[in-house]
Specification:
Layout: E1 11-15, H1 20-31, E2 35-40, E3 52-55, E4 71-72, E5 74-77, H2 83-92, E6 94-95, E7 98-101, H3 143-161, E8 165-170, E9 172-174, H4 185-192, E10 195-198, E11 210-211, E12 213-215, H5 216-228, E13 233-237, E14 242-243, H6 244-255, E15 261-264, H7 267-272, E16 276-278, E17 283-285, H8 301-305, H9 313-327, H10 339-348
Parallel strand pairs: 1-2, 1-5, 2-3, 4-6, 5-7, 7-8, 8-13, 9-12, 10-15, 16-17
Antiparallel strand pairs: 11-14
Helix pairs in contact: 1-5, 2-3, 4-6, 4-9, 6-9
Length: about 350
Amino acid sequence: MPVSGHRAPLRLLVLGGTGFISGAVAAEAVARGHDVTCVARGTGGRLPEGARLLRADRDRPDALAALGGTRFDAVVETATLALPRVREALRAVRADHWTFLSSISVYADTYTPGQTARTARLRPALPDDTTRYDPARDPEPSQAVYGGVKLACEQAVREATGDRAFVVRPGLVVGPGDDVGPFGYWPLRMARGGTTAVPPESAADGAPLPAQVVDVRDLAAWILDQAGDRAAGVYDAAGPPVPLRALLRDIADAVGHDSLHLVPVPEEALLTAGIGPWTGPASLPLWPPRALHGALSRDVTASFEAGLRIRPVGETAAAVLRDRLGRGAGKRPVAGLTPVQEAALLRSLGH
């Protein structure tokens, strides 16, 4: 398939390629006709067809030695809590452009709405990263540690690449292939229909609860557009901030059963029932604690001006539902309420 628009094919290195975001980047790159090499252990997810795999354990010395004689047009680095891996890649790989996938967790203030990548205060960088992170066991690592390590990685990338780096700080990334985030609960639940418990429509102060997501496919497309243009800078990656009730209604309209009836549950009732916020077992997914209200209502105008394009949430919800049902991934949700828990909660409210 030819590369779209004016952009020439890239010799692209994806440090990853089998994970949720890195796999989406690799798949989109192959679809655009790029020459894609992925570096991964090869024990996780499936490599996109058309990409080549360099099997490597990046915790081992000289894991990237085989790349020493190759120059790439662009590199996409997706390391999570792994500053030593980032530093080694910067030493071992030659490339004209570098993308580093950072995180919105680098910001110290997650309470205040309307902040931008240029105005928000950052956490202290943690340049001595010895942390190991297993997303299968811990989908929510300590944000102070996670954000501090990501910021140290950003600094290492900028020091090594100068003006050849595109640093992108995603918020909540959703879409097909995500089995650990809180978004995926809702397409599955709403497709079942019936009386459905949803978060309250507003916070204790009366303000609408916020929501802000980015589809992984839109993020991947933007990363590749920027790599093709050799663009640089630091940007957040998120869709426009919207009220949570509007996002849930969009999901319901896209995938909901005819019998679907949404029942907002007051915060007091959720707390009394032992229902947690945001994610994890026995939670009401996407119900944001106060500490996340700012992180879910960031001003991403600069990112849209730099070419980020966001598809409708309903389109994402429909794709997530097809993906999860197709892979059987909806049988053991890692976030949300079981049918028994939800029924007990609704009975307590008289439903």
